[in-house]
From TrEMBL:
GO terms for molecular function: calcium ion binding. InterPro entries: CALM/Myosin/TropC-like, EF-hand-dom_pair, EF_Hand_1_Ca_BS, EF_hand_dom. It holds the Pfam family EF-hand_7. Keywords: Calcium, Repeat. CDD domains: EFh. It comes from Phaedon cochleariae. One of its GO terms (cellular component) is myosin II complex. This is EF-hand domain-containing protein.
Protein backbone atom coordinates (compact mmCIF):
# COMPACT_ATOMS: atom_id res chain seq x y z
CA UNK A 1 0.00 0.00 0.00
CA UNK A 2 1.39 3.41 -0.92
CA UNK A 3 2.10 5.61 2.07
CA UNK A 4 0.43 8.99 2.01
CA UNK A 5 1.64 12.06 3.85
CA UNK A 6 -0.42 12.29 6.99
CA UNK A 7 -2.36 15.50 7.44
CA UNK A 8 -4.19 16.39 10.63
CA UNK A 9 -7.69 14.92 10.48
CA UNK A 10 -9.46 18.28 10.51
CA UNK A 11 -7.47 19.45 7.47
CA UNK A 12 -8.01 16.25 5.53
CA UNK A 13 -10.62 16.71 2.84
CA UNK A 14 -11.83 13.43 1.45
CA UNK A 15 -10.54 12.89 -2.06
CA UNK A 16 -13.24 10.52 -3.31
CA UNK A 17 -11.27 9.76 -6.48
CA UNK A 18 -8.38 8.40 -4.39
CA UNK A 19 -10.78 5.88 -2.84
CA UNK A 20 -12.73 4.99 -6.00
CA UNK A 21 -11.12 1.54 -6.25
CA UNK A 22 -12.70 0.59 -2.91
CA UNK A 23 -16.13 0.16 -4.47
CA UNK A 24 -17.96 1.97 -1.68
CA UNK A 25 -20.28 4.96 -1.89
CA UNK A 26 -19.35 8.50 -0.93
CA UNK A 27 -21.74 8.23 2.01
CA UNK A 28 -19.99 5.07 3.22
CA UNK A 29 -16.60 6.77 2.86
CA UNK A 30 -17.86 9.77 4.86
CA UNK A 31 -19.16 7.41 7.55
CA UNK A 32 -15.79 5.67 7.70
CA UNK A 33 -14.07 9.05 8.02
CA UNK A 34 -16.35 9.99 10.92
CA UNK A 35 -15.60 6.70 12.66
CA UNK A 36 -11.87 7.14 12.05
CA UNK A 37 -11.94 10.73 13.34
CA UNK A 38 -13.80 9.66 16.48
CA UNK A 39 -10.87 7.36 17.31
CA UNK A 40 -8.20 9.88 16.23
CA UNK A 41 -8.51 11.87 19.45
CA UNK A 42 -5.19 13.65 19.02
CA UNK A 43 -6.03 14.50 15.39
CA UNK A 44 -2.76 13.08 14.10
CA UNK A 45 -4.32 11.44 11.04
CA UNK A 46 -3.64 7.99 12.44
CA UNK A 47 -5.11 5.63 14.98
CA UNK A 48 -3.72 2.74 16.97
CA UNK A 49 -4.14 -0.70 15.44
CA UNK A 50 -5.38 -1.73 18.88
CA UNK A 51 -8.65 0.00 17.92
CA UNK A 52 -9.33 -2.28 14.93
CA UNK A 53 -11.34 -4.80 16.93
CA UNK A 54 -13.47 -2.13 18.55
CA UNK A 55 -14.12 -0.39 15.22
CA UNK A 56 -15.06 -3.60 13.43
CA UNK A 57 -17.34 -4.37 16.36
CA UNK A 58 -19.08 -1.03 15.71
CA UNK A 59 -19.52 -2.07 12.09
CA UNK A 60 -21.21 -5.29 13.29
CA UNK A 61 -18.30 -7.71 12.83
CA UNK A 62 -17.11 -9.66 15.85
CA UNK A 63 -13.80 -11.36 15.18
CA UNK A 64 -11.82 -13.99 17.02
CA UNK A 65 -8.46 -13.03 18.49
CA UNK A 66 -6.72 -14.96 15.69
CA UNK A 67 -8.71 -13.18 12.95
CA UNK A 68 -8.01 -9.84 14.55
CA UNK A 69 -4.29 -10.59 14.85
CA UNK A 70 -4.12 -11.55 11.15
CA UNK A 71 -5.85 -8.30 10.16
CA UNK A 72 -3.52 -6.19 12.33
CA UNK A 73 -0.50 -7.92 10.79
CA UNK A 74 -1.86 -7.28 7.29
CA UNK A 75 -2.77 -3.62 7.92
CA UNK A 76 0.28 -2.66 9.98
CA UNK A 77 2.87 -3.80 7.45
CA UNK A 78 5.61 -1.59 8.88
CA UNK A 79 4.82 -2.63 12.47
CA UNK A 80 4.54 0.95 13.76
CA UNK A 81 1.29 0.20 15.63
CA UNK A 82 -0.80 2.83 13.85
CA UNK A 83 -2.84 3.06 10.68
CA UNK A 84 -3.71 5.99 8.46
CA UNK A 85 -7.20 6.75 7.23
CA UNK A 86 -6.26 5.24 3.87
CA UNK A 87 -5.25 1.96 5.51
CA UNK A 88 -8.37 2.05 7.68
CA UNK A 89 -10.66 2.72 4.69
CA UNK A 90 -9.17 -0.21 2.75
CA UNK A 91 -9.74 -2.49 5.72
CA UNK A 92 -13.26 -1.33 6.56
CA UNK A 93 -14.39 -1.32 2.91
CA UNK A 94 -13.90 -5.09 2.78
CA UNK A 95 -16.38 -5.51 5.60
CA UNK A 96 -18.89 -3.09 4.06
CA UNK A 97 -18.82 -4.98 0.76
CA UNK A 98 -19.32 -8.31 2.57
CA UNK A 99 -22.37 -6.89 4.31
CA UNK A 100 -23.91 -5.71 1.02
CA UNK A 101 -23.36 -9.13 -0.54
CA UNK A 102 -25.00 -10.78 2.47
CA UNK A 103 -27.99 -8.46 2.15
CA UNK A 104 -28.33 -9.24 -1.54
CA UNK A 105 -28.17 -12.99 -0.84
CA UNK A 106 -30.86 -12.68 1.83
CA UNK A 107 -33.11 -10.72 -0.53
CA UNK A 108 -32.66 -13.37 -3.25
CA UNK A 109 -33.62 -16.10 -0.79
CA UNK A 110 -36.67 -14.14 0.34
CA UNK A 111 -37.70 -13.54 -3.28
CA UNK A 112 -37.40 -17.28 -3.97
CA UNK A 113 -39.53 -18.04 -0.90
CA UNK A 114 -42.13 -15.51 -2.03
CA UNK A 115 -42.26 -17.12 -5.48
CA UNK A 116 -42.88 -20.52 -3.86
CA UNK A 117 -46.02 -19.14 -2.23
CA UNK A 118 -47.06 -17.07 -5.27
CA UNK A 119 -47.56 -20.18 -7.40
CA UNK A 120 -49.55 -18.41 -10.12
CA UNK A 121 -46.99 -15.62 -10.42
CA UNK A 122 -49.54 -12.91 -9.65
CA UNK A 123 -47.13 -10.85 -7.56
CA UNK A 124 -49.01 -11.37 -4.32
CA UNK A 125 -50.24 -14.01 -1.90
CA UNK A 126 -53.57 -14.04 -0.10
CA UNK A 127 -53.81 -13.27 3.59
CA UNK A 128 -55.28 -16.73 4.21
CA UNK A 129 -52.08 -18.29 2.88
CA UNK A 130 -50.05 -15.81 4.93
CA UNK A 131 -52.05 -16.84 8.01
CA UNK A 132 -51.06 -20.49 7.32
CA UNK A 133 -47.41 -19.50 6.90
CA UNK A 134 -47.41 -17.55 10.15
CA UNK A 135 -49.08 -20.47 11.96
CA UNK A 136 -46.31 -22.76 10.68
CA UNK A 137 -43.62 -20.35 11.85
CA UNK A 138 -45.24 -19.77 15.25
CA UNK A 139 -47.82 -22.43 16.18
CA UNK A 140 -48.66 -20.79 19.53
CA UNK A 141 -50.13 -17.62 18.00
CA UNK A 142 -53.71 -16.94 19.00
CA UNK A 143 -56.26 -16.05 16.31
CA UNK A 144 -56.29 -12.49 17.68
CA UNK A 145 -52.49 -12.28 17.41
CA UNK A 146 -52.64 -13.60 13.86
CA UNK A 147 -55.29 -11.04 12.90
CA UNK A 148 -53.19 -8.24 14.39
CA UNK A 149 -50.10 -9.42 12.51
CA UNK A 150 -52.02 -9.67 9.24
CA UNK A 151 -53.34 -6.15 9.78
CA UNK A 152 -49.78 -4.86 10.27
CA UNK A 153 -48.40 -6.76 7.28
CA UNK A 154 -51.20 -6.01 4.80
CA UNK A 155 -50.58 -2.27 5.04
CA UNK A 156 -52.91 -1.35 2.18
CA UNK A 157 -55.78 -3.58 3.45
CA UNK A 158 -56.03 -5.27 0.07
CA UNK A 159 -56.47 -8.78 1.46
CA UNK A 160 -53.25 -9.71 -0.27
CA UNK A 161 -49.57 -9.41 0.54
CA UNK A 162 -47.32 -8.22 -2.27
CA UNK A 163 -43.53 -8.62 -2.47
CA UNK A 164 -42.80 -5.34 -0.65
CA UNK A 165 -45.14 -6.22 2.23
CA UNK A 166 -43.71 -9.75 2.41
CA UNK A 167 -40.13 -8.43 2.40
CA UNK A 168 -40.95 -5.87 5.12
CA UNK A 169 -42.51 -8.62 7.22
CA UNK A 170 -39.52 -10.96 6.87
CA UNK A 171 -36.83 -8.31 7.34
CA UNK A 172 -38.70 -6.54 10.10
Amino acid sequence: MAKVAKAPAEDMELDFEAFSKLDISKDQLKMLKQIFDSFDLEQKGEISVDMIGQILDMLGHRLTAEELQAIVKEIDEDGNGVMSFEEFAHLAARFLVEEEEDTEAILRELKDAFRLYDKEGLGYIGVDLLRDILRELEPNLTPADLNEMIKEIDTDNSGTVDWEEFKAMMIG
